[in-house]
Amino acid sequence: MAQWKYADPEEVRLSAEILRTLEQAGHTACWVGGCVRDELIGRPVNDMDIATSARPEEVTELFARTVPTGIEHGTVTVVVEKIPFEVTTFRTETDYKDFRRPDEVTFVRSLDEDLQRRDFTMNAIARKLGGEYVDPYGGRADLELGVIRCVGEARERFREDALRMLRGVRFACVFGFDFEPKTWEALLELRGNMIHIAAERIRAELEKMIGGPNPAEGLRLMAQSALLAEAKILMKPQALEQARPARLDALPPQPAELRWAALLQGLGVTGGEAENLLKSWTFSGGFSKSAAALLRIDERMEAAGGAETRLVFIRCVLDFGRKAAETWLTYRFALAEADKLPAARFEQAAEWLAAIPAESPRELALGGNDIAGQLNRAPGPWLGALIRRLLEAAALGEIANEREALLAGINRLLAEPDTREGARSE
Ligand code: ATP
Ligand code: MG
């Protein structure tokens, strides 16, 4: 049976069982695409995708648990021992509309025809149960050479689906491969077609590129190709050139906010602009918010100096939360290390963060209702503002986070003006 060195043994065993079941029912079946490619270059294999001559309804009949994931495109998810595998019927794609993936596909009985519709030679290799390869386009040779080459005529491939160009750039960047000259030429010729590709599909590719082992190479290739110069996620070559010193490689890939914040900073996007921009690029609300928070903290801290630094930092923690402050520290420590710059400022901030007794009203030893009762006032907006001042005083170590001390503190705070709004840099 086929040996897999870079895949999960359980997934190999279970997917091999699926292949066997399909073959015993008289169909052709094989592993195909990313898993075969990744195994050949010795990278961790993710999805053990299966291609078969069996029609979706035939696949559905053969297995106990199936999900009709994308049945109209031929994909059925077969679940064995709780692990899902995508089983896709051999197909060709016709009628590419608007330079995007077609809505309609035609099921075929031959593997070679299926491989022909795939984007790059390295993605058009199939592997049989016994371990033999079906590699009609020289995908293995191109993997040896480290070359991104389209299956067949590159211009046709890119004209059919413009996203393939960005996939190519992503593979080149993640694998450290070069473009075969004709493929690169076609990409330069057809890059304008990227305008037709949905932001969501672009974002998914960019996430893999920026989260990969060599994000700086991704920026270089995107600048050089001008692939996103007119796209729903806009990154003009000039802006990308300007962003290239942003040291994305110095930052760990996780949490993803780190590299995206560095990229946005490089592109000249401010913390105030970042959240809406990332949302318009189809990032989740949560991610957009936390990446923007990282930028906002960084901007405030870069502008702060001297004795007020501690107050500025503590206000950042209270405004954006402990997690955002920690992410900012990770960001600054990594950049300082990469640039061999002193990190004493950030060590100091880490100590301040560790010493903060309460970061949210929940953690305060005095509840809102208790405060309102003590002051004989109905809760209202004043209460939130007061709690916030208490939190700040506790974080600064001016008041202990204990009920009695906080109660005593309230009286003092009420006698003083609230300096917070004026000090906020937002
Ligand atoms: P990844 O490692 O990111 O999963 P992948 O090559 O496996 O990369 P998938 O999107 O999982 O990418 O697609 C699986 C296979 O389907 C590819 O290897 C390729 O053969 C084919 N494929 C995917 N997208 C396209 C496309 N836009 N045009 C042609 N073939 C494609
Ligand atoms: Mg894949």
Question: What does it look like?
Answer:
By secondary structure, the chain is α+β, with helices and mostly antiparallel strands. The protein folds into four domains: 1-137, Beta Polymerase, domain 2, CATH 3.30.460; 146-242, Orthogonal Bundle (Hydrophobic Seed Protein); 247-356, Methane Monooxygenase Hydroxylase, Chain G, domain 1; 357-426, Serum Albumin, Chain A, Domain 1, CATH 1.10.246. It has helices spanning 9-24, 34-41, 56-62, 111-116, 139-145, 154-160, 163-175, 181-190, 199-210, 215-225, 237-243, 257-267, 271-280, 285-303, 309-320, 322-338, 344-355, 368-375, 381-395, 403-415, 420-423, and strands at 29-32, 50-52, 66-70, 75-80, 83-89, 91-93, 105-107, 126-127, 133-134, 147-148, 178-179. The strands form three sheets. It has a seven-stranded mixed sheet. Strands 6-7 form a two-stranded antiparallel sheet. The chain binds adenosine-5'-triphosphate and magnesium ion. Adenosine-5'-triphosphate binds at residues 33-34, 49, 101, 118-119, 123-124, 161, 163-164, 208.
